[in-house]
């Protein structure tokens, strides 16, 4: 083992606790370090540190909290090369994708720094004669954030940046598959100006998540993971009386109408599906053609075959997957698809966890379309009409995102209003909301009542207090 991932508790870095979990490099398949599985004692200490820091942080002017977030954004920019290298080593994404993740992280910090404008309450003078009514927002307390492997820094940051901006303190649990990005970022919190205990990082696996869900001093739990994990965490945290928001898996369709340029659509859907080896919750993993579109399918197949597997972090192409188990899961799907495989990525070669882009023909009732598949595999489905495409989208057990490509404004409007998903793209291959806009998700793709980002994040991370006052004297 070359390096054991660290915790950040009360401002101090310390080795992660518990039995060692090996951390492997997606680029080579070799062990590069270890992370402790974690335990309730480490969680107790982190939550206690966050609880102790809460009064001072909540009392700090919201504009001063915002300035600290902006300083952290600047430090991420100044340390981008080092952080990108850590992300790439941990996660297996290319350096280009890692730098793009950091750029989005900065955007989210800058968006969260606008929270002071959204924290304003309401005041009514003489709501009844002689009585004023005031509605104020207050932080909810200690917020737990469980981050995924695919965006080791950005995705958790989407939640904890807003939690901090609203005056809460946080305990962050990075993925045990990518522990070093969170640890590297943890070293910058003090430099940015966060007081000790405001931000804590506890490494580990399931035991840490369960301890956070159960801990009486944790007010909320935010998680991004598989649908099964999201359901389990949402149920456990809710049963413990906590606010919970749990983003799960996805199978996002991209609908192509006959009037769309086939080359534009092919480029958009393959970039979306095969970028980062399909390990993004907003990847378009199902191409739905309205009517027969052989030119589009041919172009998709050609682009899939032309997409190389990235051989090194600074190379172009589809990078390795996070683990051997992830590769095996995609290979198993291709085996099940049999003769419907149009482009087979199992022949790709490389020293790490490699599988190439694949394209599979399917019918609307294929059970493979309802499985949670996270990898560089694009399914192609043909339906007769736009109504059928919308019905297919709405029948999915997932409801994260969907896109449509068309030059017909009426068709785009119909899809936008009738598609039952949380994030819609119109002539956009990845329907990712900007940092200022709420992030949607429905059915198995999201459990909770309040989403992340923007005003919805402020709603989640604050509680309302109503004050009725009669002034005398």
Automatic annotation (TrEMBL):
Q: InterPro entries, alphabetically?
A: Ald_DH/histidinol_DH, Ald_DH_C, Ald_DH_N, Aldehyde_DH_dom, MeMal-semiAld_DH
State a single Pfam family of this protein. Aldedh
Aldehyde dehydrogenase domain: which residues?
Answer: 17-467
- Keyword set for this entry? Oxidoreductase
Q: What is this protein called?
A: Aldehyde dehydrogenase family protein
The organism of origin for this protein: Paractinoplanes lichenicola
